[in-house]
Every structure is written in structure tokens, then in C-alpha cells.
Amino acid sequence: MAERKSKNISNISVTKERAVPAKISASAFDDDDRHFDTSLAADETSSRTSIKRGSTSTDVAELNPKFGTSTLSKSAPIAEKVAAALNEQANAEENGVTNGNGSTDRDSEGPSSEHSDELASSTSSFELSDPSSSSSSWAKFAQTYFQTKGCHSYSCSALQQPLLPKKDRGDHLASLASWVTILRIMGDLPDADVGDTLAVAGTVPAVVTTVREYFQRKYTKKDVEETQKRHSELFKDPAHSGVTSIPFLPERSGGMLDKVQYVTALGIYRPEIRDELYCQVCRQLTNNPSRNSTVRGWVLLSLFAGSFAPSERLAPCFLQFLKDSSPVFAEKVERLVRRTFISGTRGFPPSWLEFQAAKNGKPILIPIALMNNHRMLVTADSVTTVQELCHQICDRIGIIDDSGFSVYITLMQRISCLGHGLHRIMDAVAECEQNTKQMGMRESSSAWRLYFRKEYFVPWHNAKLDEISTELVYHQVMRGISVGEYKCDKEEVLVLMAAQRYFCESQDSFEPMNLTSFLNSWLPEESKKAKDMAFWEEQVKKAIKEEFPKGKKVTAESLRADIVTYAKDKWHSQFSRFYDASKVISPAMTLQNGIVGVNSKQIDIMDEKENARNHITFLEIGTVSRTRHSTTITTLSGEEYVMHSNHSEDLHSHLTTFLEGLKRKSKYAVVVQDSSQLEGAIGVNVAKGDLVILDGPYENYIDADIITGMCKRTDKISVMPRDLLYILPTPEEPAADSMGMLTMQLKKDPTVFINLSASEKIEHTLEAYSKVHFRPTSDNTVTKVLKQVSFRKEKSATPWQFSKDPIKKPLLRKTAFKEELRSTSCRCFLAIQQYMGDAINKDRLAESELMNKYIINPAIRSRHIREEVYCQLIKQLTNNPDKGSTEKGFKLLYFLTSTVSPSYELTQHCEAFLRGNKHKLAKICLDSLRRTKQDGCRRYPPHTREHESFSYSTQKISIQIRFPFGEQQTFDIEPTARVGSFRNMIANKLGLAVAEDYGIFFGLQDRGSNLYSSSLAVLINARETEYFMDALTHVERFWLRQPDPISPGTSSTTQKMDLTIFFMKKLWVDAVPGEEVLSDVEFHFPQEVPNYLRGYHKCKMEETVKLSSLLYTAQHGQDLAALKNLEKDQSFLIPQTMHGEKPGNEWKSLIESSLQNNKSMKSEDAKIEFLKILSTLPTYGSVFFEVKQRSVKTYPKNILLAVNKDGVIFLDASNKGILARYGYNKIPNWAYDENSFTLVVGESSSAVKIYLETNVGHNLDDIVMCYVAWMMNKHIKKRPSAAGVTVGESSC
């Protein structure tokens, strides 16, 4: 495999040589000796690849994927052409990128055997808050559930038994072994000295295999007793005990990454020990005297949180443990664990890439290759799904509709479509790394690549509506033609395509030499071999003259749209989502190991060699149903096609989405009965089988009882009842043969069409769902006999409808069989009854607390409780005789649907229930459920503001935003608005050109030093990918440190918060004064003035006089009255550091003289001139931080840090002289905690750590990270990409 030159982040745009790895780190894993740096280099991959059909590319992927399930596979011949297209793109440039691994390939070494408190990380010591005062505290949990009482805090001794009781001996032994591994990871127990060992590359079994084999063994009581003795011996002399053959403790412990992957894999594979793993780490974090051990523990906890979630029994206590801990680490862990609550358990242990990111406290920046040769870095974490990644890409590049776009991952000979569903992107990366390791290479050298391309078209796709999407698909099509992925069956079509592409790229410059070069590089190899180049040149020139004569107005945009539309219709089979089917049963045949392809035209059924065997058009389909592993299509003629597949859920979802979308977009319907046979249709001149063309898409009539349309047979427009028509799922007028088929079927059995039309308005219940999923009754024989003779109808016979009685057991089987979920499920039902008024609220809890604490929070934490709560609520809304109770129930359902969505199957029943319900909130709830399903669930229950602002007419929330120019404005947002979309809305309303340079911040008034505003202490940046209301809740939970809002027995009141929401300039990357006047006047100027007045800019006397006069003109215009106050108070015009330079009267005289030059200057012009002078200074556009340092003896104790687009500048706090400048290419890593910030600067052996004392390290981290990400995005934009990039360099 050919290697390309890599670029270390330290050398971006400086040199092409690879940097020498630095031995300096800001990580707690200093002694784990593997180097990591940020590299932008790529390895070549083989041109031969293969593709997997239907690989977890589901919109509703299984929440708990099978442990170690493969994503990559070999199956489709066409994958070679797809891979060729991708590789051809990747090789188009000279330099590529890899996964950011320009690292050395030294083995990871275990932690040092010395238990030392020496500062091995950037974090200074902090003491974990004692959570024992909380009702759900860690100490109380340990006292209640631990087998050994009083062992909830730090210890380095051996466990005599697991912390929590275990029924299975394997779980018991795994818990003891995990304790040893966790202590070794945290540095509290040295590794065993096994001497020099030699392992043949690729022979060490994968960690998932090792874990699986351990759990598959049978263990006796004797095994447990002997293992406990061996553990005791091990702890007597951990390094030299020589104890071996301990179950679940591999002989070769491996490096730090191996240990982390192994202990995480135990929790992924075995749900029964997940709580044990969490408890063991939390125990070690409680009262831990070692800073190094504490940091390692939090890193490990964050990796656990991104891999699997604690059970419902531990979850409330764990969240309280995090809330009571330092926010520096705890808020990151909570963010991950709450996301894992929603996404479910992952399939692979953390990758090398995730370990580096967790160690360094940085986000993962993943390179994505687009089909137009552009590259971009997107932010990810361990829980990021492919769906979230696709949304982020589309938001960044401006794609309006992401339907059909998917992410592909390649690794050497294999390529897999990850789709755009709930598959975790880091699981695919971890699998690639494991494959690389099995081939004898380091995980860090895994050359995987990610691509964003069109997988399929929706049937109603219109290429003219989204230019950016069309451009990407156009480039994909053209590249695919070039490598033979898409074949032109006619010579003239290929010639026309060549002419159109040449026109799009060269416009009017038709140079013969350029044309020759273009054809040589673009024409497929087969075509170049079949005909000589002179022939093609002549044909293309002729086509150009015919298609684009002078004077004819043709735009490149319209041509691209035409090409994409042609590709959608011509190559619809290639633009398909494919599913492997173990069996396909149709009326004509039974096919083993087939392939089902769903595209914009039809459903294709193929054999394993991809030969077409049958197809079904959407017009033929009557209903689509599914079981666990099969999907059944029933046609209008009664034929059934049964497709057995492991991806039946996604296949069913895909088909129903297409059918529903086609009906919503359709303008065509067929009359299902004569108008004379339907009351209300008398006088409408239509007959059974007539084609009716609606005067608009059917989505305009979904809630209407009558529809206006034109009968094709009579050409007359009529108003007809909705029940008279069957909407045809087609975007275009049906062909004559299709109409003939429909008419024939109508004559045979019109009831099929009538029932399908009527089913859309039938009130739906959970009766059918309950027969399969509800818990069976546990009545004995005598009870059953008594019920049969009773005259009263037994309510237990209808558990799916309203009941005033509380439940003693959960409704669903899967919650009833889980001990820790039973009581929570019953408490949820009682809370639902109390909220709806069907039960007494004995504790007098406020409605918002009752809903959030006892209904929605449990639903967020557990997917099983989520299903249970949905069933309980729909049960109470079905045949509820109390109108007031129903009103409250639908309000609760709205908040539930806007927060979480259930499984795919239950979602179908919920949607049917809401479609058939006539309540005024039913449609709002339906839209909310669909939006949550599409955009993702929230991390927190609804905020207090959401409860207060709810009304039937609008659900929008009013948010007050403060701007640097002194004004405040109120914006109304949806509860599900993300920070990025909110930011864009504000920028658009203000008329700002580039929204990405701005940010939304939460300003706090209770801690820290002054940053942006004289009245604020700290600003917390809101992540643009988060829901805004979740970000607000998160800040209040971790940074305001408010007490729990409501205690039992008290009434609900709105909490007064010391919090202000700001919208400000964040990245000063395009802030040249005068180029964008609006930004200069309203943002740049008001944000720079405080920095100037505090004396952060070092200005000469002449510059100070000029700047102060401009500042006066900008603020007061030509009115000189305010200048009189200058003698008494210089702070409003003169920098703080210059106050003692001259007395007030001299400053007044100098400024008055300078003001003579500003007589004709307007306020706006003065502001721009003020910025122009400041822009000549190196500190212009900086965020300043007052810090203290003791690391560098040549620097003063008090330092002023200036962070801007050029890097970090160290200034002397007294005279503002520049002590040092470090570009971001000279800052390999940094880290922070509550009271310090550590910067690693320099390269190689000259790199040093600079410890800075500050309590706003999170602000420093955020602004540095944003500039580094911007720089890397700029660098990578037009370079081929390969694998992942994290930020930061450390020895690991």
C-alpha cells in the first residue's frame, strides 16, 4: 500500500515534513507510551472493494446491536465500481488524509507501578463533593445495595465479592476481574511483570472474541473459591505475584487501550454487570487522594457512559452523583450517558480514536468526503449516530432535504453503506480498527474513509428545488459514468453527457486542447478502447454546437438538474437501498438468498447474482405488514410477497415511508364506486374506475371531507366526497396499462379499495398490539371461572383502554420480566393518573414536576419504560369518558412525543391512534412524534419555560437574547429548535452575512472573572448540534448549582435565574473592518470597546488619542458636553493602563484637538475607523483571559492571554508587552479543570507545559477548540480524506 506524506497539525501550511513526536502531554496517561498527534494524511486503499447490502442503514436501527456484529462484508459485484468511483475521487489530489494518525506505532505500556500524586495531567486537585445529603445519594445507594456495607469510597484492596449481588457465577468472576482491570487503568494497581513477550502480529484474538469465550464457559463453585484465593494472592504483590489462569483476566494484559476496550466490552456483552462497572469506578472516584487516578477514572467513566447505560435501579443515583461532582468532568459524562439512554448499547468497545479524544478531553473531528471533491470535518462523540452525522453535514453545506443521502465507509477491500439511521458511526470505526489490528497493524494506522453520497432517490424527488443537493448528485453521477458505475447504453447519450459536463465546467471557453484533456480524463475506459479519441472529440464538439448555440440561454444549474433527473429515471436500480433476504416467497416462486432493492420506481427482487427475477410497482401495493424477521407486501389483486430479512424493520419503514409520501404528493385518484351508490355524492358525474386529477397534492386535503378534482373521462371539475376516491401512490399520471389493471381489480373486488380508503379515518386502539406484547393475566382457574359467571364486564379483558384503577404490574411483557423496572412502571402509571386527574396527588406535586420527574425522566432513561409509558398513556386516552382527563392526557402526550419516541412498531400504532383521533391536539402530537423520530430524542425533559408557554394555539417559547450593542430582543422558537438553527434564525433576522462566526452563550453571574461584559462572570458556549432547551437545562443543572426546584408539599414557582442569553461574535476569522458594516457596527465595535478600555491592547500615545476621539464620536457624535466629565472620570474614554500617563485636563485637551478631525464624521464611520486602527494590532479580535502562571521563570506571575485566529498570545499583564506567540500549529494539546488551564506549546523535545491558574478554563478550551476546528476545516476542505481526526497530542 502506497503511503502519502502526512501533515501534522503542528505543521499545517508550514512544512510538508512529518513532525517528530513530542514526548510532552496534557493527559493523565503520560506513562502509556504511544504517541498521538493530529495528522492530515491518507493511505491509498485498494481499488478492489466490496459492499454490504442493508447493513444497519436503518432509520430505526436496533437499539441494542448484537455484540461485535460485523458492519463490513463482501457481497455485491457492483461495489467494485462504487469503490472505484470513491478511490478515483480520493486519488484526484496529490495529498490525502488518514485518520489523524501520524503517530508512532510503539506499544501501549501499562501505568507505572508507583502510586504517585505527581501532577501527570493538566488538571489540578479538586475534591469530589460529598453527595450523601441527597435522597438519591451515592452513599445511600451503596448502603442499600452493596453486599459489603461502608465500602462506597476509594480503596486499592482486593474485592472479596462483587459490590452488587450476582446470580450467575460468570458475572461474579467477571466483576472481580473488572475490579483489577479498573485499578490498573486508574494507576491504583501496577501491572503484572510478565517479562518480555513476543506476540505474532494478527494472532491475538479480538477483544470481543475473548469476552464472548469467557462468558460461554461453565463455572463451578470450586472455580469461584479458587479465583477468590488467586485474587487475594495477586493483591499481595501485584507486579511479581506470578498468579495466572484467573478467569476473565487475560494473561497478556496489553496496553492501556486494550485494558479499556476489554473492561468496556464486559459491560457491552453482559447487561448484568454494567451497574457493577459503574459502581466500581464511582467508588474509586469518591475521596480519591490521587489527582492522576481521579482523571483516569473520569476518562474511563466517560467511555463507559458512551458505550452502555446503567440500569434503572442505578441511573437516578448515578445522575445525582454526576450533578454533585465537579462539572469539568461530570457534565461531559452526563451528556454522554443521557445520549446513551436514548441510543442504547453500542456493538463494539471504544476505538483508538475515541480513547484519544476522551483522554485529551476533545471532540472527535471526522473527515467526510463529498462527491464534489470537497472535504469537511464534522464533530462527533461516542454516541453520534449516522443520522446525526447526516443532519450535521446537510446543515453545514445547506442541503434542504437529506432524504436518500447516506454515509459510506471503506476499508481496503470492503465498502459498507451505513445509511442514515441509528447505527453508531464510531462502531463502524471501531470495527475497522479491529480489522486492521487482526491484519497485524496498529489500530492507529487503520485507513478507513467516510463518504457522503446519494444512496437512493425518493419517488417525488425534484432536482430543481435544492441546488446544493443537485450539485453533489451531479458530481456523483458524472464520476460514476467515468468509472463505469452508471452505464450509458447508447453512444449519443454518452456524447450528450460529455457535452453537458464540459459546458458546466468550462462555460464559454471551448478550447480544443481543454476538450481533449477533459475527454481523456472523463470518458469510460471501455468507450476509449471502442473508438479513438478523434471520434469522441468530433461528436462532442458537434453536440456542443447543437445543444448550446450562441444566444441560447442555458445555465449550469438547469443542466445539472436535468442530468440528475435523467439519472433518477435511467439508473433507478443503481440508486436503490438493498436488503439481503434469506428467503423471498412470491406467488410465482420461492427464492433463497435473494436481494430486495427499493428505489424510486419499484421494488426489485433479485437473486444472489443480482439477476432481476421480479418487480412490484407502488401502484400495485395495497398493504405492507411485518413480523420480527419478515415483511409482507399484499398487492391490490391479493397476491402476497413475503421477504425474510434481518432488516425487515427498516424494509417495512422504507416501504411505508415511500407509500405515504407518494400519497401525500400525489394528484391522482381513482373512483372506487359509482357516485349514485354513495350518499352525498349524488349529482357528481363520475363512475367507478374513472381517473380523477386533483387540483393540488393530496396533502392539502388530508383533513378534508371533500376534494376538488377533474374527471379525466369527462374533463369536468367536480367537488366530491373523500370516501369516493382511492388516492394513487404515484407522482405522475398512471399509464394506460396501469389504469387497466386498477379498473380490472375494481370490477373484481372493489371492497379492497374502499377498505383502504376508510382505514385512514378509523379510530385506532392498542388492542392488536396488546395481544402480542402485553403481559398475560396471571389468574388462577377459580378466578377465571368466577369471571365467566360474573354479570360485570371484567376490565382486565381490555387492558388497552381507560381504567381508573391503578396497575399492580407493568402492561408490557418486557418490563414485567425485569425486576428493576416493575416498580418504576407502576409509579409512572400512578403519575399519569395523578396528572390527568384520575388519582389523588397526595404529595401535592406541581404538574411540571410530576410529569418530568415521574413520567418523562424514566422514559428518557430506559427504552423499556419508554414503551411502557406510551402504552399506559394511550390506554388512558382510549375510551376515556372524562373530557378534562382527556385534555390533560393529550397535553402530557404532546410533551412526551416532543421528547422521546418509542420503537418502530409502537410508533406505527401511536401514529395510527393519533391519525384516527379527533382531539385538537392529536395532529399536533402526530407532527411532534414524527419530528422527534426524524430529528432525534432529547436528553432532558421539557424545561419549565416549555410548561409555562404551552397553549393549544402555539407551542413556541419566547427567549430573550441580549446583544453586544446593548439591545435585547425576544425570539419565538420551537421547543425542538437546535442551537445552530436558532443562531441562524437570529443572524438572518439581523441581516448578518455569515452566521457560523457567531454563537449563543449563557452568561452566568455567580463565578469567575470578567470576560465579555462588565456585568457577567462566565460565558458558557451552547453547542450548535444540541437542542436549545436541553442546552439551557444542562447549564442550569451543572453551572448555576441551584437546589432542586420543588420539594414535596410545596407549590410550583418559577425559579429566578442569574442567567442571561447572549448572541455574539465568536470566531473573528473574517472581521476586516469596512467589509461588512452591519457586523462592524453592531458586533465588532461593541465587543472591542471593553477590551480597549481595560487596556488589553498595547497602543502608543498617538493611537490612544486617536482611538479615544473616535470612540467619543461613535458614542456622542458632535455633542461635546460629555467631554467635561473626562477630568473626573477617564474610564469611559481612556484605557485603564493609560490613566496615570496624563492628568485629566491634558487628556481632555488632546482629545478635543483630535475631535477637530472628526467633525464631518458620522457615528457609524467613527466605529469603522476605530476598528481599522485596532485591526493593525496583533491582539485585534481576541478573547482575553487574565491568568496567573508559575511554570515559566522568565514570565511574570500575572499573564494576559489573547486568543484569536492566529493563535495564543502571552502578554505581560502590567505593560501588555508580547512575551510569546504560539500559532495553533505549535499547540499540540491543552487541558483544563475548575481552577487551571494547561497549555502544551512547542514541538518535539522543546515542547513545554505551561500551567495557568484560572477558573474559566472551559472558556479557554472552547475558544481554542473552535479556532483549531476552523483551521483544520479550512485546511482539509479540498483534500482527499480518509479516517478520523481528533485534536490534541499526547503520549498514550
Automatic annotation (TrEMBL):
GO terms for molecular function: actin binding; ATP binding. CDD domains: FERM1_F1_Myosin-VII, FERM_B-lobe. It holds the Pfam family MyTH4. InterPro entries: Band_41_domain, FERM/acyl-CoA-bd_prot_sf, FERM_2, FERM_central, FERM_domain, MyoVII_FERM_C1, MyTH4_dom, MyTH4_dom_sf. Residues 121-133 have a biased composition (Low complexity). Belongs to the TRAFAC class myosin-kinesin ATPase superfamily. Myosin family. Residues 47-59 have a biased composition (Polar residues). SMART domains: B41, MyTH4. GO terms for cellular component: cytoplasm; cytoskeleton. Its main location: cytoplasm. Keywords: Actin-binding, Cytoplasm, Repeat. PROSITE patterns: FERM_3, MYTH4. Residues 364-670, 957-1275 form the FERM domain. Gene3D superfamilies: 1.20.80.10, MyTH4 domain, Phosphatidylinositol 3-kinase Catalytic Subunit, Chain A, domain 1, Pleckstrin-homology domain (PH domain)/Phosphotyrosine-binding domain (PTB), SH3 Domains. Residues 104-118 have a biased composition (Basic and acidic residues). PANTHER family: MYOSIN (PTHR22692:SF33), MYOSIN VII, XV (PTHR22692). This is MYO7A. Transmembrane segments: none annotated. Residues 154-359, 802-951 form the MyTH4 domain. Residues 1-71, 91-133 are annotated as: Disordered. It is found in: Cytoplasm.
